Structures are given as structure tokens and as C-alpha cells.
């Protein structure tokens, strides 16, 4: 198995995904170990001083005016982690926790946080052993970092808390550490704060969402083109002359090109190219590249923000190059929270236009001759009637999830932390919206595939034929009504697994 080397220069998208989803091993570079030791020397020098320094010899948040004597500082760090591990709710997904840990490790390895190398190495050992701290869903306000989620991870480094083994089985933490030959860490000055003061949870979820959405928007273009084909729409609105030269949004041009390529050599499209009395297709067909293209551009803007954050050092206070320990506000999650909310809006709209195409295919008055609800014997059979209900419910849910979390702020810590980002909440709802979008696209795929097959003996494009052939291995074609839910689940797995694109690549 390959390794991801954690250095002082940050991480890439592929690094995060490989660790979170691919379980790749991590190792600390010699440069990062040296940088951590150098900054640790500065911290220990300040710790020995009588001058109070935030995070080293004081309390935290609204309690920062309390100077803590040296004999109580180990207790201070331990108390910080225990008290901040206050999350509630369902466990967070394993991939999210691994991404969170990898990103915190990235910041520790920067040499700007003042932790001992052993702290970073222990976190790397947890990742490599497949030990996943149990992090609960609610607890972060997205400011002063994702405090509660990160504290649940730090607790496991101390040999406490809750965790799961590499098979996802919850077991006692001391047992898991002993099995992996990992010694619990006794945190020293500054280290507790350094383990929890980052935007790592919301950033990890942003990176994973971008990874998923780049695949889904490609799939959405192909499935939209299949709907155009099944509805006897035209491919002439997707020609390149209408996009890049006239409206230079790069995402739009990409989506139009993909749709045009999907429809290439379609016998169905060719059948009505010169004898169709319709002047223009409906917006949900004709404007598909404009909507999906805007989604593409939004994803890439979000990726720009994520890349900046991947090279950032998020901690408070930080150790500067000259050894000064300086307080700052870089833990505020606003930059990440905004793009998480922006993506949720784009996801909702992409699902909305997909549902409109499905509804059109099921309506005999707008489907250009298809049977009502694509049913085998309309009246006896209901066909895909309720599949569209399900799709509409998902679209409605995504519209609710598009309401931004980042416009809210609830002051905390006795008004010391009087403005927060709610970035963690924005990330949690985006994950749900992305899952819903996969199901929405899957239902459109089921409807579009059935519509195309009902156009026989007219032949679909080679791309459509290939996708339908792959889909039919798990989802049956037109016929009498049958138990539909398992087919929609299978279609969702087809889409989420990237098989729309892999079928034609």
C-alpha cells in the first residue's frame, strides 16, 4: 500500500481522499519532525517563564485570564480535552473522522503549533492502525476550530474516550492501543489546544464533497442528455458555437460538450432532426448545460478555497518563525462555511432541474408520445409514477438543506467567542444533500433509460446504449409493475459508484 508523506507544506486533495477513503498509510517527513522539535523548544522556553502565555500557562476562552502554575499544566491539558469532548448525536462517518485526523496531523506537522513530534507520530499511528475515534455529530460551532469533534479524537490519543477498530467494531480504547502497540500520550503545555483548534472537520467534508460532486456533475450531464434523447429533444443547442464564444463560462462549455458527445450518432435524435414541428425544447432540456455548468464553476471555486485551506496553518496561538507565540483568529471557519453553503445551493438546483426532466418523461401530454408514466399497461400499471414522487421529496429536502448555516451565529464562551461560522453544520447538511443528489440522478437515469427503450425500433446513441446495457445488469427494463424500491437503490449505487462514467470511458 502506498504512503502519504506529511510534510510542512500541506496536503493535496488526493492525499486527503486517499487517507480518508483509501486507508493509505501516513508517514512524517524528517523536515516536519525537525520543524516540530524547533517550535517545541520555543514553547518550552516560554513555559518556563513567569510571564503568562495563552494556551501554555493560562486557561482557555473566557478563562484565559487565569495563570496556571507549572504543576497543574498537565491537568490543564487533560481537562481541556475531556471537557471539550462534549459531542452528542449519531457517530460521524469513518471517512470524515479520518479526513479530520489527517488534516489536523497536517497542521501539527507544519512546525507552527508547538507540539512535540511524539504527539503527531501518535496520531499517525492511529490512522495507520485503522483506529477511528468515535466522533458525534453535534458539538462544533465552526469557530475556535471544530472543537468537540477534534477533542473526541484527542481523547483517544490520551488512551480515553471511544473508538472503533479497523473493522468498524467499537472496542475499549486501551485495548485498541495496546493491540496496535501505541502508547497513550500525556499532553504537555500547548498540546491540548493544538489538537483541537482547527477547521479540519469542515474542511475534510468539503474536500470529500468536491470529490463526489465532480463525478456527479459529469454523470448528471450524461443522464440529462439521455433524457433529451428519450424526449425527442434536439442536440443542436449543445453545439460549441453557442457556448464558449457567446458566454464564456467554462463549466457551461464543458457540460454542453459532454451532452453533445453523449448524443452523437443517436438514431432517435436523427429520426426527427428535419421533421420536428417543435421550435424549441423546454428549459429543463435546453438549459441543462447552463445550470450544470454553473454547478461546475461553483465546485471549482469551492476547490480554490479548499486548496488555500489545505496549505494553511490553523491554530491559536501559533509559533512564528522568530519564535514568538502569537494569538490570532485563523480558526474562524467563515471561508470554508461560505463555500459549503454555496455548494448546497448548487446541488439543490442541479437536482431540481433533473426532477423536471423526469416529470416531463412521465407526463403523456409532454413526453412526445411515450405511454403515461412509462407504464407497461397504463391504468393497470402505474409505471414510474411514484418514483417521481420519491425524486420530488428528495428535491424538496435539498431545497431545505440549501438554507445557509453560515448566516447564523450563536455567541459562546461567556461572549468571548461572540461570532461563529457554523461551518461544521454547513458541511453536515452538504453531505446529506450530495447523497440526495445521487438518488435524484439515479431516478432520472431509470426514467431516461426506460424512455429510450420505449422508442424502439429507433436506436439510441452508442453512449446511451452502453450505459443502459450496464444498468440492466442490476435494474430491469420496461415491463409490468414490480417491487420498485430495490431497483432505485441499485440505480443509486450505480450512480454513486461512478459507473455512469466508467461505463463509457
UniProtKB/TrEMBL annotation:
<keyword id="KW-0369">Histidine metabolism</keyword>
<dbReference type="InterPro" id="IPR022313">
    <property type="entry name" value="Phe/His_NH3-lyase_AS"/>
</dbReference>
<comment type="pathway">
    <text>Amino-acid degradation; L-histidine degradation into L-glutamate; N-formimidoyl-L-glutamate from L-histidine: step 1/3.</text>
</comment>
<comment type="similarity">
    <text>Belongs to the PAL/histidase family.</text>
</comment>
<dbReference type="InterPro" id="IPR005921">
    <property type="entry name" value="HutH"/>
</dbReference>
<dbReference type="GO" id="GO:0019556">
    <property type="term" value="P:L-histidine catabolic process to glutamate and formamide"/>
</dbReference>
<dbReference type="GO" id="GO:0019557">
    <property type="term" value="P:L-histidine catabolic process to glutamate and formate"/>
</dbReference>
<dbReference type="Pfam" id="PF00221">
    <property type="entry name" value="Lyase_aromatic"/>
</dbReference>
<dbReference type="InterPro" id="IPR008948">
    <property type="entry name" value="L-Aspartase-like"/>
</dbReference>
<dbReference type="InterPro" id="IPR024083">
    <property type="entry name" value="Fumarase/histidase_N"/>
</dbReference>
<dbReference type="GO" id="GO:0004397">
    <property type="term" value="F:histidine ammonia-lyase activity"/>
</dbReference>
<dbReference type="GO" id="GO:0005737">
    <property type="term" value="C:cytoplasm"/>
</dbReference>
<dbReference type="InterPro" id="IPR001106">
    <property type="entry name" value="Aromatic_Lyase"/>
</dbReference>
<protein>
    <recommendedName>
        <fullName>Histidine ammonia-lyase</fullName>
        <ecNumber>4.3.1.3</ecNumber>
    </recommendedName>
</protein>
<keyword id="KW-0456">Lyase</keyword>
Amino acid at each position: 500500500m502506498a504512503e502519504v508523506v506529511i510534510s510542512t507544506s500541506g496536503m493535496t486533495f488526493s492525499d486527503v481522499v486517499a487517507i480518508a477513503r483509501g486507508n493509505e498509510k501516513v508517514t512524517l517527513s524528517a523536515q516536519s519532525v525537525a520543524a516540530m522539535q524547533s517550535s517545541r523548544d520555543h514553547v518550552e522556553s516560554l513555559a518556563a517563564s513567569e510571564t503568562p502565555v495563552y494556551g501554555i500557562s493560562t486557561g482557555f476562552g473566557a478563562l484565559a485570564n487565569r495563570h496556571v502554575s507549572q504543576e497543574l499544566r498537565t491537568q490543564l491539558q487533560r481537562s481541556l480535552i475531556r471537557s471539550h469532548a462534549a459531542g452528542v448525536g449519531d457517530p460521524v462517518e469513518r471517512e470524515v473522522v479520518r479526513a479530520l485526523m489527517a488534516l489536523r496531523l497536517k497542521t501539527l506537522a507544519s512546525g507552527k503549533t508547538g507540539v512535540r513530534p511524539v504527539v503527531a507520530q501518535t496520531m499517525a499511528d492511529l490512522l495507520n492502525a485503522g483506529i477511528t475515534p468515535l466522533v458525534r455529530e453535534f458539538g462544533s460551532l465552526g469557530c475556535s476550530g471544530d472543537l468537540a469533534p477534534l477533542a473526541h479524537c484527542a481523547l483517544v490519543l490520551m488512551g480515553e474516550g471511544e473508538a472503533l477498530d479497523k473493522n468498524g467494531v467499537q472496542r475499549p480504547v486501551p485495548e485498541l492501543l495496546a493491540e496496535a502497540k501505541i502508547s497513550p500520550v500525556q499532553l504537555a503545555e500547548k498540546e491540548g489546544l493544538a489538537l483541537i483548534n482547527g477547521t479540519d472537520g469542515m474542511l475534510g467534508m468539503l474536500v470529500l464533497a468536491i470529490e463526489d460532486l465532480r463525478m456527479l456533475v459529469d454523470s448528471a450531464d450524461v443522464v440529462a442528455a439521455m433524457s433529451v434523447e428519450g424526449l425527442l429533444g434536439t442536440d443542436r443547442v449543445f453545439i460549441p458555437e453557442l457556448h464558449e464564444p457567446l458566454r464564456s463560462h467554462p463549466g457551461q462549455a464543458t457540460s454542453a460538450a459532454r451532452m453533445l458527445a453523449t448524443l452523437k450518432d443517436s438514431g432517435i435524435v436523427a429520426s426527427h432532426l428535419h421533421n420536428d414541428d417543435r421550435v424549441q425544447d423546454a428549459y429543463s432540456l435546453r438549459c441543462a448545460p447552463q445550470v450544470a455548468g454553473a454547478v461546475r464553476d461553483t465546485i471549482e471555486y469551492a476547490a480554490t478555497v479548499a486548496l488555500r485551506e489545505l496549505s494553511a496553518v490553523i491554530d491559536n496561538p501559533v509559533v512564528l518563525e522568530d519564535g514568538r507565540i502569537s494569538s490570532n483568529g485563523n480558526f474562524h471557519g467563515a471561508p470554508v462555511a461560505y463555500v459549503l453553503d454555496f455548494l448546497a445551493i448548487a446541488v439543490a438546483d442541479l437536482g431540481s432541474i433533473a426532477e423536471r426532466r423526469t416529470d416531463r418523461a412521465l407526463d403523456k401530454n409532454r413526453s412526445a408520445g411515450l405511454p403515461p408514466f412509462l407504464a407497461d399497461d397504463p391504468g393497470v400499471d402505474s409505471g414510474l409514477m411514484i418514483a417521481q414522487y420519491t425524486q420530488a421529496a428528495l428535491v424538496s429536502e435539498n431545497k431545505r438543506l440549501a438554507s445557509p448555516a453560515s448566516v447564523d451565529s450563536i455567541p459562546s464562551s461567556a461572549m468571548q467567542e461572540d461570532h461563529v461560522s457554523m461551518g461544521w453544520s454547513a458541511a453536515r447538511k452538504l453531505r446529506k444533500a450530495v447523497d440526495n443528489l445521487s438518488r435524484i440522478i439515479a431516478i432520472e437515469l431509470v426514467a431516461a433509460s426506460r424512455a429510450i427503450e420505449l422508442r424502439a425500433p429507433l436506436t439510441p446513441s452508442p453512449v446511451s446504449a452502453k450505459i443502459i446495457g450496464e444498468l440492466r445488469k442490476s435494474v430491469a427494463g420496461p415491463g409490468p409493475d414490480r417491487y420498485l424500491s430495490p431497483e432505485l437503490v441499485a440505480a443509486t449505487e450505480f450512480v454513486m459508484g461512478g459507473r455512469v462514467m466508467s461505463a463509457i470511458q
